[in-house]
Amino acid sequence: MTSNSHDWLNEHGDYLYRFALTRLRDPHQAEDVVQETLLAAIKNPSFAQQSSPRTWLTGILKHKIIDCMRKQVREIPASTLMSEEDANMDEFFDDTGHWAEKPQAWDVPQDALQQKQFLQVLQQCMDRLPQKLAAIFSMRDVDDMDNEEICKALEITATNAWVMLYRARMGLRKCLEMHW
Amino acid sequence: MLSCKQASLLVSQSLDRRLRWRERMSVRMHLWICVYCRRFTQQLALIRRMMHAWQDQATDQSEVALSQAARERIAQQLDKFY
């Protein structure tokens, strides 16, 4: 087993670290969750070949990231978690509820090159989003967790989740509009 | 009639939950007359379609790796377990 866990570290450590960095952004926290993931993997090596080690380890890692995020979400300022009625969206809408800056038509990326370019802009825009919004948005749109699962995992209300996802999408969209 | 602000929130929520009948109807009516919110809706759908590829790309950047120090520290922790 010792050699196994070292193999996991050698073969998948960097991958797990990069994945954790996309969610947590902080290198130290990312290193910590990779370590916790590998330790949890040793303690419970019953994956029985159902999935590749990388898929299995990534699954454990996602849980460790969520544990880390749950602690962070408790520290989110109330302004970000406000209910939808008073979510402050002045940045995006005028007093009458009209778009402050009207959404423009985008070119939909067609070929592989355009997709690649779009992804680069998306990367920059994800980096600019506040970390917690980017992370919860990733849980929804990458991990395909439904709202109920997200609320349970992070111990937040359904309205909190909807408002945070809304803010994430508004921020991403605005950034993409400026740079795509 | 919904404002763009209200409509955009419901459009976003429609990606996360099933809207009530009344909400669906009011969004549909708003989108019928508002080209900006129609664009907004298409753009959110595009973002959703691209997010899996975003994660793959972000995780495949081979220049980012565990530092040697972190790697050794983790290896030690793994050894300690036995």
What this model shows, in words?
The complex is a heterodimer of chains A (180) and B (82). In chain A, 34% of the residues are buried. Chain A folds into 2 domains: 2-73, RNA polymerase sigma factor, region 2, helix turn helix motif (Rna Polymerase Sigma Factor, Chain: A, Orthogonal Bundle); 78-179, Arc Repressor Mutant, subunit A. The mean pLDDT of chain A is 89. In chain A, 68% of the residues lie in helices and 0% in strands. Chain A is mostly helical and 180 residues long. Chain B has 82 residues and is mostly helical. Chain B has a domain at 1-50. In chain B, 76% of the residues lie in helices and 0% in strands. Chain B contains 4 helices and no strands. The longest helix of chain B has 25 residues, at 35-59. At the A-B interface, helix 1, helix 2, helix 5, helix 6 and helix 8 of A face helix 1, helix 3 and helix 4 of B.
SSE topology:
The complex is a heterodimer of chains A (180) and B (82).
Chain A (H helix, E strand, L loop, with lengths): L1 H23 L2 H17 L9 H21 L4 H4 L30 H17 L2 H11 L5 H8 L3 H22 L1
Helix pairs in contact in A: 1-2, 1-3, 2-3, 5-8, 6-8, 7-8
Chain B lengths: L3 H11 L6 H13 L1 H25 L8 H13 L2
Based on Cα principal axes, name the global outline of chain B: elongated
Question: Spans of chain B with pLDDT under 50 lasting ≥5 residues?
Answer: none
Per CATH, the superfamily of the largest domain in chain A is Winged helix-like DNA-binding domain superfamily/Winged helix DNA-binding domain
The largest pleated sheet of chain B is described as: none
The percent range for helix content of chain A is: 55-70%
Number of strands of chain A: 0
Q: Strand portion of chain A, in percent?
A: under 5%
Please give the CATH class of the largest domain in chain A: Mainly Alpha
β content of chain B, as a range? under 5%
Query: Which class best fits the helix and strand makeup of chain B?
Result: mainly alpha
What distance separates the N and C termini of chain B?
Answer: 66 Å
Overall shape of chain A: globular
Helix-strand string of chain B: HHHH
* Helical percentage of chain B: over 70%
SS element count, helices of chain A: 8
Mean pLDDT of chain B: 94
Q: What is the subunit organization of this protein?
A: heterodimer
Order of secondary-structure elements of chain A = HHHHHHHH
Largest sheet of chain A: none
